Amino acid sequence: GEKQDTLQWRRGQAGTRGGAELALLDAQHATFDLTAKDRQADLDALELRAPNDGVLLLTPSWSGDKPALGASMYAGTEFGSLPDTSAMEVQIDLPQIEAQGVATGNSVELHPLGRPDQRFTSRLSWVASAAKTLGRESPVKYLSVRAPVPAEVIARHGFVPGQRFTAKIVLAREADAIGVANVAIEQQDGKHWIKVREGRGFVRREIELGVRGSARSRVLKGLAAGEEVLLSAGGPAQPDDAQPGEATDQAKDKDKDAG
């Protein structure tokens, strides 16, 4: 009887030790499995997978320099992009002095540089909030705007990222609009004035302006087609009966684009 009790006790002890050892092995397995997953995640983070087919475009830095082999880069710095060719847009950089009146929704005519036969029309979808310089070489500020390229146009002409385009932004298009040179417009107390010929002299007249371009502005009220406007007080007079030292401009209907 005593031997049987001893044998059962030893069996119980062996089972207890075996369970403890199995629990230890399970804990070690879980630790190794977690370590393996962490290492695999680190390896996956080093691998870049393209979300779509396309051409890799290197992203220039603020100074305009593109990433090069051996160059140092800060963590999180974008060094390139892979645009989706099924949804592309054109970025247009306008000199600040020529960007007056440009707004989202303006029509824009585009074609690849040197290929006017591939002309198409779009509308501005984004306008930068402020103008900025494009590089350290020039202090000139530019206003950036963007216009989407229709998918059917991309497929038809085979456009690719990085192509250069010629753009013409249309501020307004009216069949019988009246325009006047900006140099002839005076501004005072929030109102706009021009000097219009009456007889051999000029009288000051208030006008209401519409769309304003870099060189000319549309006149909504205050000026009729055919009237002559004083451009400046200096320079030679254009008509034979103009007073000495006065340059004039004839208001006329415009069926071309303002801007």
Tags for this model:
34% strand, CzcB_C, six-stranded antiparallel sheet, rod-shaped, alpha+beta, conserved putative lor/sdh protein from methanococcus maripaludis s2 fold, 3 domains, four-stranded antiparallel sheet, CzcB-like C-terminal circularly permuted SH3-like domain-containing protein, 259 residues, Elongation Factor Tu (Ef-tu), domain 3
How would you describe what is shown here?
This protein folds into 3 domains: 1-49; 83-170, Beta Barrel (Elongation Factor Tu (Ef-tu), domain 3), CATH 2.40.30.170; 177-254, conserved putative lor/sdh protein from methanococcus maripaludis s2 fold (Beta Barrel), CATH 2.40.420. With 259 residues, the protein is α+β, with helices and mostly antiparallel strands. A hairpin with a 3-residue loop joins β13 and β14. Mean pLDDT is 82; it is low at 253-259. Helix content is 20%, strand content 34%.
Show the helix and strand layout.
Layout lengths: L1 H44 L11 E2 L21 E2 L6 E8 L11 E6 L7 E4 L2 E2 L4 E2 L7 E9 L1 H7 L7 E6 L6 E5 L4 E3 L2 E8 L2 E12 L3 E6 L6 E5 L14 E4 L1 E3 L5
Antiparallel strand pairs: 1-2, 3-8, 4-5, 4-9, 6-8, 7-8, 10-14, 10-17, 11-12, 12-13, 13-14, 15-16
Protein name: CzcB-like C-terminal circularly permuted SH3-like domain-containing protein
Keywords: Coiled coil
InterPro entries: CzcB_C, UPF0194_transport
